[in-house]
Design brief:
The complex is a heterotrimer.
Chain A: E1 3-4, H1 8-22, H2 27-35, H3 37-55, E2 60-66, H4 73-87, E3 91-97, H5 103-112, E4 119-123, H6 127-132, H7 145-148, H8 153-158, E5 160-161, E6 164-165, E7 167-180, H9 181-186, H10 191-197, H11 201-211, E8 217-221, H12 228-236, H13 256-270, H14 283-289, E9 293-299, H15 303-315, E10 330-333, E11 346-354, H16 362-376, H17 378-387, H18 395-401, E12 405-406, H19 410-421, H20 432-454, H21 460-475
Parallel strand pairs in A: 2-3, 2-4, 8-9
Antiparallel strand pairs in A: 1-12, 4-11, 5-6, 7-9, 7-10, 7-11
Helix pairs in contact in A: 1-2, 1-19, 10-19, 13-21, 17-18, 20-21
Chain B: H1 2-14, H2 18-49, E1 52-53, E2 60-61, H3 65-71, H4 74-105, H5 110-125, H6 128-138, H7 146-153, H8 168-179, H9 182-193, H10 197-205, H11 210-221, H12 223-238, H13 242-248, H14 259-269, H15 273-297
Antiparallel strand pairs in B: 1-2
Helix pairs in contact in B: 3-15, 4-8, 4-9, 4-12, 5-9, 12-15, 14-15
Chain C: H1 13-44, H2 67-75, H3 79-110, H4 116-126, H5 131-145, H6 152-156, H7 163-173, H8 178-186, H9 191-202, H10 204-220, H11 223-228, H12 237-242, E1 245-246, E2 249-250, H13 252-277
Antiparallel strand pairs in C: 1-2
Classes of the chains: A alpha/beta, B mainly alpha, C mainly alpha.
Chain lengths: ~475, ~300, ~290
């Protein structure tokens, strides 16, 4: 079912409404920015022509470090660089390509050595450590404000710490659940309704209970090793935890919401609706494809493509199809919502940040920002967004996306739109230290304890108590949320 | 004047010869240059950093703050404990295993020995990246996991392997024992071949049996080798982090958090490079103490 | 030779054969266990060349083909160059260690020169510092001061003469009788001549053990080559293999194929050095 991607305008409205939902102060600028984008774009073009004249006689070299954001990203980048060079022939771009697994380690080493690339791809959660060591750069001084208004404020908020903007967003990934329509409906789920208006945790529990059989799990979440963190982030929204910090900047994993989340996990694993062993990231999709589970997470909209391709192979008797593949329709679903919690969906922003190195000068940074903006907007961003089945986070990318055709069902497109509208950006006042401490808490306390909970070796209450003890030590009890948040 | 006297006294006492000084330094010249530039300089730099709140552009001197933070951290102690458990189990077992296998390989003809050595060396050869992926499959905790299928053959229920705090460390230990003995076996075989047959002949005349020969000839003769393998093995084991990093991420309830992983995370994930350096120095002190102890226990009059 | 350790049972050869057969059975059984992961890797290198999230639930691939080998070679323009790079890096690292660590080990054990004890102590001590924290200063040195990114020297120099190998060489040379050296000296041999004419012929075993171990370590090192290379053409095989992993899946079989191909050079080296292992001298044998 091929749908033209004309949902952009609907989505931008959705984005704005989500901004209202999270009560952000910057809403006004955003609304103004996106309502007369046409004008903004024209202005930018004028600005660009002027700048070309100004910068044509100085040469500059910019380094950019990227993991394979899409499989062919480095090749694409090559094309975009030549395109960029037509306009700025004196700016040389050096690309450092990395692998997903080790991107952070290499970037940190380079940053610590004072040799960071000028631009690096990072997930928003990682910005804190670069701010902490003094290599992240406040980009708002160097980017043309007209260009900045192209980006959705909600997405920019992710790239902001303590009110300072450190980078430009590339895409918001919405991470939620994916399932087998037929099985879900047989288990009593009103799939279409869930996709467009969410569901409660009780409904969810009923459905996975009905969906569990002797040779199939109701729900499988990849939670082995480092992916445990995904579960907490993605399923945390069910209990109303949308970020490590509340709007008043208190640490949120000490709230009663967390206890409810942990108890829910205890229920799901001890009842056998969900495996009580760790599932490797790769396996969840295979389990869904072969009917060993009804629902899975973390799931992204782009899985629709993976599943369709695999079924085609199976039908063509291609030996490369996953063995035991069953015919199914993939449905993308939001995470359920518990009582007293506001429905939301976990989103994470990946973007480009500017980093300080020994060549950094103001003039250089202006060039850096030109290229960064070039990559994060228009066709370039649209190409990435399409590859991951997402809608752009800047007006120009959404505009460029209109001409693409995405192989996505109407229902899933609607589910994506609903999910995006429920994404809540983290509060923008978080300090670098808080962010770094939250990361330490996650890696050193929450994830390890949570794994023990999954294995049935401890109780929700014990895990919760351990988290509180550690968090009080790290943040101080007064900086930790208590009671039920929101 | 006085200084000069002491100087002369030292000289005569240790009998340094000019020619030896020249040839000695000539022999170690390149090694020392490489060592100073690529090892000593980074080490000293890390020591300095351990007293700083490190920032690439403007570090601050903070005295012993990093050390105090490190020592006051429960996870630091837990990771030392984990590493110690891992080392105490893996190193002796792996040495015994390598030694026994080496002993079992030597009675064969040269060609057969070559084949066995090749086979036992192979697990060490295979690439680190690909082999850790394989081990993750083997330890897959679902009933379809390879090890779980093997257990099922014996009628045992599926194990949680890496995701249970009861078996995670054991899983890492099994992995280490099955994949790291190749080099040790080769070194032991070399050592066994170095024992002159006259020793055995003399022992046989005294009526010594196989195990007596092992006890009174092979073990003492291989002691320097054992000491070398023990010392480097312990050092390596204390610094190990790839297994926890690739396999468990520190895994259930921090039961597989190795000190190496903690240092790595602090340096590269949390950006607390100064703290990481302090932890590394503390670790170095522990390792040095253990190494000295090993030299003492093995009775080797090693001259530093 | 070590044959004297075992009774040759000259009076009753059948006991000899039975004993050796039993040992062989045990050795083969244990080898089978430790080789299993390798066999698994080898088997899956013949699996399908598709991006898969994980293996299927089969122990072995359903259909065997060379597709993944083709996919490995065509994955990047430089797939085979990665192996070549690893060979160059490992070869020079081995040469550096065998020559310089060998010489240093000899000097530390047999030449009494000023500063010897202190220097050796410092070298031993440097082994105690975990490499994780020395990577950053080393990176600053190589990249910022020497401007060596994407060069072979950046990959080779830091590992060219390791403390481990100096230690190992010293332990070994200590076992060579000092009398041998003293008498050569009296006959007017210089230390260099002694090393070339007397020591080297005695140390083929230890140097080949050192060579194969150094080669292996260099071959399997990931993090350092990953740090100092940014161009695909300069990757080593380990860095290259990591690029087969993506965010939501991996080219598993091609990765295994690459790993299998990369084992070949090491096997060649292993078997070409094999005969020296059998000549045998103790590492740091009893004092002569």
């Amino acid at each position: 079912m091929k749908v033209k991607k004309v949902l952009a305008s609907v989505l931008s409205v959705a984005m704005i409404s989500s901004l209202v939902a999270c009560g952000n102060a910057a809403t006004e600028t955003q609304t103004a920015g996106s309502s007369d984008t046409q004008q903004a774009v024209t202005k930018t073009e004028e600005a660009k022509t002027e700048e070309t004249a100004a910068s044509s006689d100085v040469t500059d070299t910019i380094t950019i470090m990227v993991p394979p954001i899409t499989g062919d990203y480095v090749d694409l980048l090559g094309g975009w660089i030549s395109e960029f060079n037509k306009e700025y022939p004196n700016i040389t771009i050096d690309v450092i390509s990395t692998s997903w697994d080790d991107h952070t380690e290499k970037l940190t080493t380079m940053a610590l050595a004072g040799e960071a690339p000028d631009i690096a791809e990072v997930s928003y959660a990682a910005i804190g450590s670069y701010v902490e060591n003094g290599t992240a750069i406040d980009i708002s001084k160097y980017i043309d404000p007209e260009r900045l208004s192209d980006y959705d404020q909600n997405a920019l908020d992710y790239m902001t710490l303590e009110g300072t903007l450190y980078g430009l967003p590339l895409y918001i990934t919405i991470q939620a659940l994916g399932g087998n329509r037929e099985m879900l409906e047989a288990a009593g789920a009103d799939v279409t309704k869930i996709q467009t208006s969410g569901w409660t945790y009780d409904q969810f529990l009923d459905v996975i209970k009905n969906g569990t059989t002797s040779d199939r799990f109701g729900f499988v979440f990849a939670n082995a090793g480092a992916t445990t963190q995904d579960f907490i982030n993605i399923f945390g929204v069910a209990a109303g935890i949308t970020s490590s910090f509340t709007q008043d900047l208190k640490y949120s994993y000490t709230s009663d919401n967390m206890l409810s989340l942990l108890e829910a996990v205890e229920t799901m694993t001890s009842s056998g609706y969900m495996p009580n062993y760790a599932v490797e990231a790769g396996q969840r999709l295979v389990m869904l494809q072969t009917g060993q589970t009804m629902l899975t997470g973390k799931a992204m909209p782009l899985f629709e493509n993976n599943i369709k391709r695999n079924i085609e192979k199976m039908q063509a008797k291609d030996p490369e199809a996953v063995e035991g593949t069953i015919e199914m329709e993939y449905v993308f679903l939001p995470v359920p919502t518990m009582d007293n919690a506001t429905a939301s969906v976990f989103g994470t922003v990946d973007g480009m940040i500017a980093l300080r190195n020994n060549n950094t000068t103001d003039e250089h940074l202006q060039n850096v920002l030109k290229f960064m903006d070039f990559l994060c907007s228009g066709e370039r961003a649209a190409t990435v967004d399409n590859a991951v089945y997402l809608t752009g986070v800047c007006e120009s990318a959404r505009k460029a996306q209109e001409s693409f055709e995405l192989d996505q069902s109407d229902e899933n497109a609607a589910a994506v739109a609903y999910a995006i509208s429920k994404v809540v950006a983290p509060p923008t006042g978080i300090s670098a230290e808080q962010s770094a401490n939250a990361k330490t808490m996650m890696d050193e306390t929450i994830v390890p304890k949570f794994q023990a909970l999954l294995a049935g070796e401890t109780t929700a209450k014990d895990v919760y108590d351990a988290i509180c003890t550690e968090a009080y030590k790290l943040f101080g009890e007064e900086n930790c949320a208590s009671g039920w948040i929101k | 004047m006085k200084k000069q006297e002491i100087h002369n006294k030292n000289l005569s006492k240790t009998r340094y010869h000019m020619a030896d000084n020249i040839s000695g330094w000539g022999f170690i010249g390149v090694a020392v240059a490489v060592f100073v530039i690529f090892t000593l300089y980074p080490v000293i730099s890390a020591v300095i950093t351990s007293f700083q709140e490190y920032k690439p552009f403007g570090s601050e001197f903070v005295g012993f703050e990093n050390y105090i933070t490190a020592l006051g951290n429960d996870l630091f102690w837990k990771s030392i404990k984990n590493t110690l458990v891992y080392t105490v189990v893996v190193i002796p077992l792996s040495l015994i295993l390598s030694f026994s296998i080496a002993i079992m390989i030597v009675p064969f003809t040269k060609n057969v020995q070559s084949v066995f050595k090749g086979i036992y060396y192979l697990p060490g050869i295979a690439s680190g990246v690909a082999i850790s992926v394989v081990w993750l499959w083997l330890y897959d905790a679902s009933p379809n996991g390879i090890f779980n299928r093997v257990l099922a053959l014996f009628g045992t229920t599926s194990q949680n392997w890496l995701s249970s705090s009861k078996t995670a460390m054991l899983s890492l230990i099994i992995m280490a024992l099955l994949s790291s003995h190749g080099a040790n076996i080769i070194i032991y075989i070399a050592a066994l071949h170095g024992i002159d047959n006259t020793y055995y002949e003399a022992a046989e005349m005294d009526g010594a049996k196989f195990f007596q020969k092992i006890r009174y000839i092979v073990l003492p003769m291989c002691r320097p080798t054992t000491l070398f393998l023990l010392v480097t093995g312990v050092i390596g084991s204390f610094q190990v982090f790839m297994n926890a990093y690739m396999m468990t991420g520190g895994g259930p309830d921090n039961n597989t958090t190795m000190i190496g992983l903690l240092i790595f995370n602090n340096a590269f994930t949390y950006g607390k490079y100064g703290l990481a350096c302090a932890q590394a120095i503390l670790l170095a002190i522990v390792i040095t103490a253990l190494t000295t102890l090993q030299f003492k226990l093995m009775g080797e009059d090693i001259e530093y | 030779m070590a044959t004297g350790l075992y009774s040759q049972h000259l009076h009753n050869r059948s006991i000899f054969y039975i004993r050796n057969s039993l040992i062989a059975v045990f050795l083969i059984a244990f080898a089978a266990v430790s080789l299993f992961p390798i066999v698994y890797m080898f088997a899956w290198s013949f699996g399908p060349a598709i991006e898969s999230a994980s293996t299927s639930y089969n122990i072995f691939p359903g259909r065997w083909s060379f597709d993944s080998y083709k996919a490995f070679i065509s994955f990047s323009n430089y797939s085979l160059k990665w192996i070549w790079n690893s060979i160059i890096v490992a070869t020079f690292t081995v040469l550096g260690n065998v020559i310089f660590a060998g010489m240093a080990g000899y000097a530390f054990s047999k030449i009494k020169f000023r500063g010897r004890s202190f220097l050796f102590f410092v070298i031993l001590l440097s082994m105690m510092i975990p490499y994780q924290v020395t990577q950053v200063p080393l990176y600053i040195l190589i990249v910022k001061n020497f401007h060596m990114t994407n060069t072979y020297p950046a990959l080779i120099l830091p590992g060219m003469c390791t403390a481990y190998n100096i230690f190992m060489a010293k332990q070994f040379f200590q076992g060579i009788p000092t009398a041998l050296i003293e008498s050569a000296k009296i006959e007017g041999c210089s230390q260099l001549m002694i090393f070339n004419k007397i020591i080297l012929p005695l140390s083929k075993t230890i140097l080949s053990v050192m060579a194969i171990n150094t080669f292996l370590n260099s071959w399997n090192t990931f993090f350092w080559p990953f740090l100092v290379t940014s161009k695909e053409e300069m990757y080593t095989i380990q860095v290259g293999l990591k690029t087969f992993k993506f965010a939501n899946g991996s080219l598993l079989s091609p990765m295994m194929a690459g790993a299998c191909i990369s084992v070949i050079p090491m096997f060649v080296l292993f078997f070409s050095l094999q005969k020296y292992f059998l000549e045998g001298v103790t590492v740091g044998a009893v004092k002569g």
